[in-house]
Amino acid sequence: MKERFADVIVIGGGPSGMAAASYCRKEGVGAVLLVEREGALGGILPQCIHPGFGLLELNEDLTGPEFADRLEGQVHDLGVKVLLDRFTKKLGYEGDRGISVECISPSGLEVLKAPCLIYSTGCRERHAFEIGIVGDRPSGVFTAGTAQSLMDIYGLLPGKEIVVVGSGDVGLIMSRRFAIEGAHVKAVVEILPYSGGLTRNIAQCLEDFEIPLLLSHAVLEIRGRRRVESAVIIEVDGKQAPISGTEREIKCDTVVVAAGLVPEVGLLEKAGAKIDPATGGPVVNEFLETSLPGVFACGNVLVVNDLVDHAVEQGRLCAGSVKSTLDGSLRRPTSWKRSVPGEGTRFVIPHLISGERDTTFYTRVRTPMEDCRLLLKELSKEVRITGAKPSEMIRLSLKGELLSKVRADLTFEVQS
Amino acid sequence: MTYRAAIIGAGIVGLAVARELMRYEEFDVLIIEKESDVGWGTSKANTGIVHAGYDDEPEKYPWRAKLCRIGNELWHELSRELQVPIEWCGALVLAFDEHDRGVLRELQSRGRANAVPALEFVESDFCSDLEPNISREVVEGLWASTSGTISPYEAVIALAENAVDNGAQLCLETLACQIVVRAGEVVGVDTDKGFQGADIVINAAGMFGDRVSRTAGISDFSIRPRRGEYFLFDRDATPKVHMTLFHTPQPATKGVVVTPTTEGNLLVGPNAKDIEEDERDATMTTRDGLDEVWERASRLVAKLPPRNTAMRTFAGLRPEPNCGDFIIEAYDSPGGLVNCVGMRSPGLTSAPAIAKEVIKLLKGRDLKLTRRRKWKSSREAIRKFRLVPSQEKDRLISIEAGYGKVACACEMVTEAEIKEAIGRGARTLDSVKFRTRAGMGRCQGSFCLAKILALLSQETREPIGALTQKGKGSNVVQGPIR
Asked: Distance, in angstroms, between A358 CA and closest chain B CA?
């Protein structure tokens, strides 16, 4: 078994992993290994051929592949050692003795060892079974990402008569993608009374193509013994419970499920990291360090982001934390303070703060609100927000000076 | 050409019979299957439990009572010979009140009558020692240490490969339309691809057993589909169980069980719903059915994993014969017809014993049988890279780099395994899945579907647009974009 040693191992070569690895080099970290499961870097970006990437980070409007190219360029220019086709089988956490990563590669088994690790494995898609769709199990049921990969990586059309489940940005963008290829998108079915997507996407992806959006509806059942023949939809009440008698059958040959993403924490959890049930990702402190000292997390495995720019920002923060861990300057407080979700918010990242330095927080509201206030009651601070949506991450940077006033908890509340 | 025997139906029973027939010089065997792969009827969608054999009353259901226990014993050697995953995890039948305790006693004495070894009563305190996740309401259990669990689809594939290795012909995507009888003797089978001559026709058509039998003039039984629905959990979902947990049985069914699978998943189900006589492919799940399964399973254990960690729900049909018992019979008129149908539970457990009964029936008809000298008893499974020790992993990769490329990340299935499955005849996504587990994990193929399609296309030289999930009419994609 081959062994490789490094100062930091980054697992996952998507946007946040590429950013983390290259910023580690920029910060002066010596040996940086970037480990990727596929045969190329980029993660999900190469199949996201629509624009909207890089607005915050680069001040440019790029497509997914273009944005991936920029990040990959940095990875190579800065001398990150890239290991492709590496399947990470096991994460061994040995405390002070460092971290070992067991990989399967076409050249044999490898063990990678380093004092620090950045976990950036991204997320997976929730599929039809997980959202309780019943009925037959024919071909023609895809998650949105699979449909996207079939279309934009493999050049294949999954189907012609489409029902899309979920109106988050992924569902909206895939609806447009199908429409552009001449497929007939019969409906986008959304269980909530509002779309989870950006307003501009509803206009550009649905309205421009006259695709109906059915709010407060769920797909109950898929029919078709061999290929999808129809989807049975039903209206739901305010508690998302189906209202019987409102069933309706929509003929289609394809059902595309865009019903949310789940962080891929598998190995991290098995290694002993604490998981936040609200995000599905690891519990982290302000260094984006997990409950395993020396192990950091960024991107969609930390929290499902709606903007790639935030994932990159998290990667950069991890890089800084790795650097200061390695040079011994990372100072953890004797006791952490907690940042916690309050009324109206679903989670807060990071979970633990020292109250000693500037920190960027991420949170999401539970329901859409027109004009509202983000309330940090322990600090008697209020931030006005115009139009908060659960799908749009709220990002808030606070000064260490202010945070030093936090005693035990810092609660993030949103009120209208 | 005329075969010595044609078997209609490549399910667990038909293939167990095929393997057994190939032991003898006198047999060349043709297996006729309407689907694109073996085992796609009742055989693939069931609990996978290898029952101990205490359930059935010998007076009422003599075949079931006798063959279950024998089949259970035969699976020990057969699973080794064919390298089929099997776990002898044992089973506990749970009593929740005095009435149930009475039933446990009936089961024990029935088990004794059926020659089932080692059935012991377990007091409630010891039940939770045996299985920590057991319901706190349990008052007593009956421990059946000989119960086990098998991978049913791998069992079918293994039997098929072994039968074919010994010379049997497998004809997939071929529908048997009519058993042809002349002058009171079977002469062959009319299929949608033409006539196939055969001296003996063995009807193992499962769900369609009565219809096939009728074409040969035997219509003294009927079969009705009974649907059962299931939840299959993610391997990491907790809490699990370490053995099969049963309720005391009801007349129609052994009830909803909670059981581990050979691959370490938790499986919960089935309910039992009799559906219309003509709904013999109605394997859909329903909300009500799954709710019922959930509710009943919840009573067996202290805790089930969260419902959204069930990575798949599915349903299977059991062919319920109106007589209640298996139909294993050779006829004088038409001569040459053997029915092997009505294989409701415990059909999977009994299959190896059923095959031996068929041989007895044939011997009873003065058929001379000579052992085939070159008969191979064993079959090698596709090596599961995931389960290979580390050093061996390295060695395999150095021989075949495809072992170093993981295609299905959830189940850690490598390209080499997928190519081998294709080399062994897999032509559809489901065929690859049942042979390798690619796509059987928590993402249910979202990540690996495109890769497997590409591999299938590359190895079979079929365009991707022609590839299917499960045979004709189930194409995965339309074809290239423009």
From this structure: 38
